[in-house]
Structures are given as C-alpha cells and as structure tokens.
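One thing: can you check what follows?
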Amino acid sequence: MKNRDTLLFVGLLVVVTLAGIWGAQQRALDAAHTDSTSGSVNTRAGHFMVSAANPHATNAGYEILAAGGSAVDAAIAIEAVLSLTEPQSSGLGGGAYMLHWQADEGQLDAYDGRETAPMGATPELFYNEDGQMGFFTAFRTGRAVGVPGVVAMLAQAHAEHGALPWAELFKPAQRLATEGFIVSPRLATSLVSYRVASDRQTAMRDYFFTQNEDGAWAPVPAGHLLKNPAYAQTLSLIAEHGSAPFYTGEIAQEIVDAVQNAPVYPGTLSMADMAAYEPIRRDAVCLPYRRFDVCGMPPSSSGGLTVLQILGMLNESNLGDLDVGSLEAIHLITEASKLAYADRNRYIGDPAVVPVPIEGMLNKFYLRQRSREIMPNHAAPKALPGKAGIQTGALKAWGDNVSKAQPSTSHFSIVDGDGNAVSMTASVEAPFGSRLMAGGMVLNNQLTDFSFAPADENGPIANAVAPGKRPRSSMSPTLVFDENDDFYLAIGSPGGKRIITYVTQTLVGLLDWDLPMQEAINLPRHVQAGDASNLELEANTALSAQADALRALGHTVTVKPITSGLHGIKAVEGTYEGGADPRREGTVRAGILEYLE
C-alpha cells in the first residue's frame, strides 16, 4: 500500500454525487485534468468511489476516502451510519460478509461476520406449546437474536487493512446520531408498512414514534429530524475502546438484557456467548466466466457458490449473442438458476458443522453436465440436486422459512485511492430485525434463517439450529477481475434468497452484454429462487410483456413489484463507473486525490 504520509491533499477533491451512471460525468471531470482522449485521468491521480444505499452513508464513506482512508475504513464508517439511517435493513446489531481486494499485494480475502446461535439454542428453538412456530411469530422474539458479528468482523478487517485511526471512522455516524438526521421517505414508509410499534415493543415505539396530546402514537414522518443519543453513546464506546465493549462490556450487557427480557419468547443469549464470538477470514470462491474471474463469499453464505454455479452453467451457452431481456435469455438464466438452487438447498450449510462439497459443486465438468439438463424450449417441472462429487445424499434441503424479498439487508461497494476494493453486504434479516433494540441499535433476527424443523422423514436437516452455529445466508458480495487479474467490478444486493438472482443477472448484463454499470443495475428483474413452480417478473417493466411467451414454455409466471438494492463499481479505462439501484435511495460519490511522487 502506498505510504499515506506522502499524500499531498491539495484541495483538489472533485466531487460528483449521482444515482445514475458515473461514466460520462467522470470523462468530463477527466478533461479538466488531462489532455488525454482515452478517458483516463492523469497517471498521478488516484480515484476513489463509493456506492451505498443511503446518501448519509455514501457521504460518510466519501469523507473517509477523501481523508486518505482505505476501502475498509470507508466500510466501517458506512455501516456505522447505515445502522442509524437505514435501521430496517442493516446495522451494528446484525451481521455481514465482506470481500476485500488488496491491490498492491494481489490479495483477496473473504470476511465472515455472520451471527451465531447462543450455546443455549436447541433444534427446537422455534417450537412453542402449539408446536412449530410460523415465521411471523418467531422473528419478533428474543429467541431469534444471534450474536451480532459485524463489529468484530470490521475490527478484524481494520487491523489488517485500515489506514486511518479506528476512532476517526465513527465520527460521521456520531455527528448524525447526536445532531439528528432527516428521516428519509423509505424509512418513514417502512415504519408504516411493517407495523413496527406495539405495546410490547416499547424501545422501538419510543424511538421511532411520537405521541400526540390524545396519547396516540404515530410513526415519525419523512422530513422529521431524528436523534439517537443512545446510539451516539454506543459509538463513543466502540470508537474509544474498540470492539471490546460490544462483546464483553457495557454494550454486550445491554444486548443480553434486551434478549433475555424480551416481551415475547425471551432468548438465552448470554455474556459468555457474546464474548466467545469470532469472525472468520476465509478463502473466497472463484470461477472463470468468459474472460473474467468471478469471486464470491464461501459458506456460511450460499450466495457465492450459487452465483458461480449459475454462471458456470451459463458458460456453456451463447448468452452474449442473445438480446438483452430476450425470451431465450430469461429462459436460460431461469433454468440454470433452478439447478443451482437445488444444489444449494441440498449441499450448503455452516462448514464448521456440515461438510460442503465446494470443489465438486464448482467442478467445470460437473457444471457442464448440469447445463445439459437445461431444455432449450421447455421449462423443467422440477429441478433436482446433482451429485456434486462428495457427501452425495448426506445433506438435504434446509427448509427456507421466508420467500418474500424483504427490505432488510444492504449492500455497498467501495474502491479507495490505492485501488483496494470492498464489496460488503450486511443485514439484520427481517425489516427492523427482531424489533428489539439495545444501545440505540436494532437487533437482528438472523436465527430464523435456520430451518425451524430439526428433522423430517429423511432424517436430520443440514440447517437445523445448533449451539454456536451460523445460519445459512444468501448474501452475495462479489468481486470480478479481468484477464490480467486486475480489479474489474464490485457488486452485490439485498433481497433474501433473491439476492443470488439479482447479482447473477447484473453480472450477465456486465460481462456478457457489456452494459454500463447503471444500465446493468436498472435491468428489469426476473426471479427464479428455487421454487420450480413460480417465475417472478418485475411489474411495470418490459419483462411483463414476456409473461405469456414464458408460460408457453411451461413456466408458471407471476408479475409483481420486485425490489433489489444493487450497488456497484466498474473499472473503465482508468476511471470508475458507479451505479445505485433506483428501486432504493442509494447514491454514488467519487473524487480524486493527488499523490507526491
């Protein structure tokens, strides 16, 4: 990494904030600094860019990068702000996955900050006196809360790749928590849509609602200035003392108290569980696709493997020759997705508990064989898992409990002035997580990502609850490298198990059809997330016109609103091209730092 003491910050911070494509504006910016017609900036200039789901978070990441911070530094600042301004989606009370590229060393790391089940959890965690709970009963309980992993994960990544002091990274969030932030339309709408407050959820009610003279409670509206002094105190403790207060001190105690005293089905989360949490630095999973190498998160997330399996099957096709959004392209991607989701459901779980046949699932001959199961002119009525090389028959489906694309989860992408990149997806699971709060933070309900049933007629279920276990995720932060092993793009999305399809389709747009980042993000969505009986098409888009033709191929089609939240950055001729999903409220911001040589 360049010595940042040699940085000369000369007041040249050229800023552009956008929710659309960066490319044309970046070229105009370049023209002010170089006579080159290639679109490159002067070779002495280093670019940085951030794309995140909330303008406050984007600005925080920009502030850190402009001060010479690393991509990891910016990620910490962004997540601290998202915990405040987008609490329905992610935060320090949840978990995350991060891919990090260290450009000067050519090193790719995958950081697993997934939540873990407390040691008091049992396979019958989501059973009550009436039997197995439904999801909408289980998620708003103390039992649903796992040990939050994102703070420990970010601390580990900062120790290895940070450039600025840890305490500096929380200042943007501290300012917003203390001085207040303007509630966005999306947050205000979520408070109404997901019926956040009730008499039993007093912490949520007292923070997000106001009481009128008649004693009635109403959610804060868009435009309201919302302050969070409890979160400001949490941030101060973390900034001054690192992650220790979060896992062994005052913050940990607040979290444990909230869970153990939850008004509905208290959980067993203890101080010992908090203190025992450890993030894991893993090897990323990668697969050649066209002239690129696509890399994603390994298990405990299912996202990376499943995205790569779909692409591996599509590698056998002429997808790049098909028209964008054509019937043939939709059918081909859908059928490959069915097969990959079938393997996902059979083989992938927490690798500390369940052996996952990663090599077998990504074997090129296996994927070629799977691709031959795709019928070009008819939809398969049902996709069965293949024989991925090892553990065949040893694992089974984990039993997804939620099929709706929730507004929870958030993704951001970052490239710093040294070319290091971060692709990070974070989540609290359901909208506003478990509806419990501690330290000014929403607490996750990630344990509902486990199978509710410990076994079925075929025996134990791979994703059953177990003490200390990580529930399986679909989060799919992705980094792509070109034929020279240089950074090419970062992308990811929220959306539950639909994340995999959102990311895959965007990669096809970028890598097969060579679309600009924003156009690839804007593509109308079609979702086949493992349910062979239903293909979802995004309403009010050109895709809806394909519904009858797809039905004629044997697909059962539903046209409905679909809300992805893709945020990405792409390298283009020495510059960066960013995009933010118009289905949310994200922005892209970029700048230039000049270096002394």
